[in-house]
């Protein structure tokens, strides 16, 4: 099926005219050693590569991009590699979230300003997936998202180690004095053994699964481990397929329908997804003009159980096991008619096509609906006078005894203040204390850092406790766990009610009732509000200044207001 002719391609405007400007483009392309035969009659495919020396999760992209190029050439396209911000979760401070929208803007503008007809987006480490996808959706050129793939299972003293999750778990043991420094160093070197993104069901694994379920990746691609040769073959297939997509004019607006977004949400819930999924999926859907709300997560969460028995929601397995058990396609098969059959993928075919024949090799790893890991979806949305615009908890990854909890707040205004509390073995508190960190949201953090799994204080660790109710306007790593209430909106820094909470106020958490309240009277809250002094702005120049002017709250996906599709007239094509 050909919907487009060569003359209709975008790149023709750069290359095909008999005028001075086209001549300059051609001449400077020949400067790189190309002949006209390399581009004439061919779509130009951008390969947006988030490789860098600071990005261990994408270390293989330097090599893998060659496979994508091979695929593009095989299918008669002209591949052009365009490097983009690599957003390393590992090195970037205070948080990659501060820069997600920067990569989204970069992606959109790279595609807009170059003679590009279609794109392969290479990402996977947490924010890179939503950022690349958001930018490419806004540009609306045919694209395929190429997931980096999870790294190999971690290994320490004959045991599997899961990225993040086990680091957090054993660090508590180290703080409790149960692990020596030598043992710890062995873990440090054993937990990340190969390139690829985190191999727990953290933000990276859930966001690549979400992108695939939305129809934006080749079927099955998101579960392939980075170090498996199937990943190289998949990369070549991406290159081949995107060229066809250009001719078919298979743009993202034809793929990302409300049905596709619902499928992405359903699959996310069944994976036991990272809490970060909420923010990113809302932002991605809204770029596609689909007004996804927090309540949609609750709606789908109530009827979609967690089926992927992968840490941190599951207890045993990791992404490598998930792949061997059949991968994301097997999970989709288990979901049966919960997936909307009307949605299509980058293949141009229905997402559900072929699921009936998909093998499932291990039903302990990828559970059937009759034997879920957790009976509801992994995320629950809370509302109440502490979070009028919502907050999020991941009940599948916390002890059920906290689902209904009442206790006194212990409030820290900043991370250094929190650190003093948690590191003091004699700080006064009881097991029912609710530890609170504020000013850690989109503006306050800034960048809404992953501080939300507040460390369990030493005063409780020495009593043998490893979990407690914690509340913040921060996010937490998708590999984290515990009774952590996150994404409180509006955040304290902009004057959300969390700013009015005082140490000693009683907090009531009711997960089945979807409620989070502070038991403080309206009159008292009004009095505190009148006394509240807004904090000093974090930035007076540069990107941070622009960020604080335009960032939206967590319940709206933390996009910049001016990148919303309805913000203004769409960008026109250039005049020349
Ligand atoms: Fe890159 Fe976890 S650090 S995915
Ligand atoms: Mg992470």
UniProtKB/TrEMBL annotation:
Sequence ranges assigned to domain Dihydroxy-acid/6-phosphogluconate dehydratase N-terminal in this UniProt record: 42-352
Top-rank lineage group of the source organism: Bacteria
Sequence ranges assigned to domain Dihydroxy-acid/6-phosphogluconate dehydratase C-terminal in this UniProt record: 364-558
PROSITE patterns cross-referenced by the UniProt entry: ILVD_EDD_1
Gene3D superfamilies recorded: IlvD/EDD C-terminal domain-like
GO molecular function, one term: hydro-lyase activity
Pfam families, sorted: ILV_EDD_C, ILVD_EDD_N
Keyword annotations of the record: Iron, Iron-sulfur, Lyase, Metal-binding
Assigned protein family: Belongs to the IlvD/Edd family.
Protein's name according to its UniProt entry: Dihydroxy-acid dehydratase
Natural source organism: Nitratireductor aestuarii
Lineage of origin: Bacteria, Pseudomonadati, Pseudomonadota, Alphaproteobacteria, Hyphomicrobiales
């Amino acid at each position: 099926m050909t919907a487009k002719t060569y003359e209709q391609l975008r790149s023709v405007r750069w290359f095909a005219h008999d005028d001075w400007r086209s001549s300059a483009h051609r001449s400077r392309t020949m400067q790189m050693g190309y002949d006209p035969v390399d581009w004439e009659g061919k779509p130009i495919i951008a390969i947006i590569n988030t490789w860098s020396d600071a990005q261990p999760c994408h270390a293989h992209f330097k090599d893998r991009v060659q496979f994508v190029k091979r695929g593009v050439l095989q299918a008669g396209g002209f591949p052009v590699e365009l490097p983009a911000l690599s957003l390393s979760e590992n090195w970037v401070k205070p948080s990659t979230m501060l820069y997600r929208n920067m990569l989204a803007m970069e992606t959109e503008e790279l595609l807009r300003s170059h003679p590009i007809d279609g794109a392969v987006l290479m990402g996977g480490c947490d924010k890179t997936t939503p950022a690349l996808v958001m930018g490419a959706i806004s540009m609306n050129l045919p694209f395929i998202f190429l997931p980096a793939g999870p790294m190999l299972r971690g290994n320490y003293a004959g045991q599997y180690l899961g990225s993040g999750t086990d680091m957090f778990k054993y660090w508590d043991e180290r703080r409790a004095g149960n692990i020596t420094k030598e043992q710890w160093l062995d873990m440090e070197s054993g937990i990340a053994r190969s390139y690829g993104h985190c191999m727990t069901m953290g933000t990276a694994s859930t966001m690549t699964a979400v992108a695939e379920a939305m129809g934006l990746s080749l079927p099955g691609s998101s579960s392939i481990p980075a170090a498996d040769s199937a990943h190289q073959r998949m990369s070549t297939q991406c290159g081949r397929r995107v060229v066809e997509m250009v001719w078919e004019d298979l743009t993202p607006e034809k793929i990302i329908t409300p049905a596709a977004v619902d499928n992405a949400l359903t699959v996310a819930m069944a994976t036991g997804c990272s809490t970060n999924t909420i923010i990113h999926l809302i932002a991605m859907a809204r770029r596609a003009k689909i007004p996804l709300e927090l309540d949609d997560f609750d709606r789908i969460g109530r009827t979609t159980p967690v089926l992927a028995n992968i840490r941190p929601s599951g207890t045993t397995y990791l992404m490598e096991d998930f792949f061997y058990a059949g991968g994301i396609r097997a999970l989709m098969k288990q979901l049966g008619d919960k997936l909307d059959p009307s949605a299509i993928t980058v293949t141009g075919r229905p997402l559900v096509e072929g699921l009936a024949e998909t093998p499932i090799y291990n039903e302990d790893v990828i559970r059937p609906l009759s034997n879920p890991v957790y009976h509801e979806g992994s995320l629950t949305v809370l509302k109440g006078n502490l979070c009028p615009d919502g907050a999020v908890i991941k009940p599948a990854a916390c002890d059920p005894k906290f689902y209904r909890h009442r206790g006194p707040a212990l409030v820290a205004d900043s991370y250094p203040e929190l650190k003093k509390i948690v590191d003091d073995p004699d700080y006064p508190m009881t097991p029912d204390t609710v530890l609170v960190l504020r000013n850690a949201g989109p503006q306050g953090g800034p960048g809404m850092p992953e501080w939300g799994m507040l460390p369990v204080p030493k005063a409780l660790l020495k009593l043998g406790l490893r979990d407690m109710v914690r509340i913040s306007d921060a996010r937490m790593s998708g590999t984290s766990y515990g009774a952590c209430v996150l994404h409180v909106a509006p955040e304290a820094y902009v004057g959300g009610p969390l700013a009015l909470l005082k140490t000693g106020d009683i907090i009531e958490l009711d997960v089945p009732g979807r409620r989070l309240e502070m038991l403080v009277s309206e009159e008292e809250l009004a009095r505190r509000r009148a006394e509240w002094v807004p904090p000093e702005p974090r930035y007076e120049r540069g990107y941070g200044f622009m960020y604080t002017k335009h960032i939206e709250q967590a319940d709206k996906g933390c996009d910049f207001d001016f990148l919303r599709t309805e913000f203004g007239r769409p960008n026109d094509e250039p005049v020349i």
